Amino acid sequence: MNDFSADIAVVGLGPAGRAVAHRCAEAGLDVLALDPHPSRTWTPTYSAWADELPSWLPQTAVASTAQKPAVWTDRHRIIDRTYCVLDTPALQATLSLDRVRVLAGTAVDVTGSRVTTADGTIVDARHVVDARGTLDSRDLAQQTAYGIVVSRDRAEPILEGSDAWFMDWRTDNGARPGEAPSFLYAVALDRDRILLEETCLVGRPPLELALLRSRLHHRLTHRNLEPTGNEDVERVRFSVEPPPRSRLHTGRGGPVLFGSRSNLMHPATGYSVAASLASADHLVERFRGCGRSRPIRPVHVWTVQKLRNLGLRTALALEPEMVPQFFSSFFSLPVELQRSYLSGHDDAFGTMTAMLKMFPTLPGSARLAIARTIVRTPGRG
Predict the structure, then answer these.
(1) Owning domain of residue 314
(2) pLDDT of 229-242, one tens digit each?
(3) Distance, CA of 168 to CA of 74 (rounded, Å)
(4) In degrees rounded to 5, what are phi and psi of residue 322?
(5) In a shared domain, residues 281 and 308
(6) Whole-prediction pTM value?
(7) For a surface tag, which of 132, 231, 294, 342 has the fewest beta carbons within 10 Å of its beta carbon?
(8) Is beta strand 256-257 parallel, antiparallel or unpaired with respect to 122-130?
């Protein structure tokens, strides 16, 4: 058994954990990172709004940009906000661990100052960051998606002249009336390849991948793109909400939760990577500025999280036919309010304003569903 000590111990080396480890090391802190497979190559597609990304991230980490992505709710709309797809290998390389001590191992006990692994190794640190992601639990709301990668030439009829489809809620995917809806997500992975993905935004339980595959093929065939079966495939399944705090060692003596294990995951969209990248330096400043890590949750951050959780419960409560109408109202908002709701991690006023502006524009049945979610007490801890 070997024991180690460090200024910072980071548990989990996905994008969030790797970002914290990298930025702490760049700031001169002694960092030790632990992951069961620390050298694993990342394969998922990570996307973000361009204005969410931190200034220290080089442009080489961005694979493609859509200056004005489109949505289809009740009609075609343009989002006046640049959207980008990250270059996954370049992102992983940018978050270099050259100055980080890296251990391969599985953490079985994580506190605010100590990590114990399955083989008995102990890591003592002034601060411990738990960035192991969400739990793969069916009682947590999840997002699922099934996509294929095609050449740009083949995808042109699907894009219909748009830079990208952020959401296409048209019902030509074979879903029957009353079934949980899914939408088409279409983005450029680079100059030559387009990802076409059928997505269940959120469900408890979510739509299964086999059904999403069937819907995607139905939609694409309807639009004169016949999948060959030889395309590269992307399968997505993850929880869009952090584990209940009752399942985590939190509070006094607990680790700093980060990434999708914390409130950086937007529960109504599933996005967390850009927020994690942008928040890494906040942790660096916190660690360099005090001798002890304190669980600080400013009231505005707490308020935003409560409002976002309300948005998640609303999305889960809406009848299928209401979902496109809900997003029609949302994307009718000024882009500044869209940004506040989607990206304003600590913008309580903007988030509340966006929700209040939306409410009177929704159909009566949707307003009733929202009212019910407000008065209903959540059953999760």
Answers:
(1) 299-375
(2) 999 999 999 999 77
(3) 10
(4) -80, -20
(5) no
(6) 0.91
(7) 294
(8) parallel
